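Example 3.2
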Amino acid sequence: MTTMNAAGPIAIGKELQVARLGFGAMRLCGPGIWGWPADRENALQVLRRAVELGVNFIDTADSYGPHVNEEQIAQALHPYPAGLVIATKGGLTRSGPGEWKRCGRPAHLEAACAGSLRRLRRDCIDLYQLHAVDPEVPLEEQVGTLRKLRDAGKIRHIGLSNVDLEQLQRAERIVPIASVQNNYNVANRYSEPVLEYCAKSGIAFIPYFPLDGGDLVALEALMPIARARNATIWQIGLAWLLHHSAAMLPIPGTSSLTHLEENVAASRIALTRDQEAVLDRLASRQ
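Structure, written as tokens:
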């Protein structure tokens, strides 16, 4: 495995360590995150190249495709290299492109986990995340189901996605939580209290949508820094995430080999204090 990922390590639970810049595989599916992409071989090449570049944390979900994304990962990478951590999620159902519905019923979560194990060709999933809290099912039942799956040896660590601080703390009363995956970037810091709690508690924080491209104020702040560093705005956005908190585990996704290499290269960008300060000040708008 080539070790070009310079982001440094982060712990997931007590025994797993991964490079602090992962890969979100969702965009390898077809339009609307539905079905296979037009170029199937390219998707497999992207996954293999990510591992060659030192990425050893890959994030997916049973709802991506649905099922397609997990099948791609196994097709491209199984038998998995030592140290590769694959995280998946359950708790959403799909009825068509761009359509998502929460389902946290225990029977659904148990079936979703079984399907992920089969598609990923694993006996135990390194990190299994509740994709989103179902408001129609008590949180304790949803997290309790994941605890039972962990106790049965089907899950090693449990994570949460799309949660607030109160939900995270309630879940912790049921089972240790190894990670939280929320929408977070230089322009969207509504999960800052969750991030701060994760940093204090040794929980990995996995930001998705690492840059909201439509935020004009953020783009105006990123552009001069990107020009000064001969980098893209996406690279600067990723570099800021890595510098902002040691708990951060960004998972930028792409279906482009070129963009993949640019994203991984962002782990080697050391922002100056002035550049960090410019981007930190955007938090005052939240």
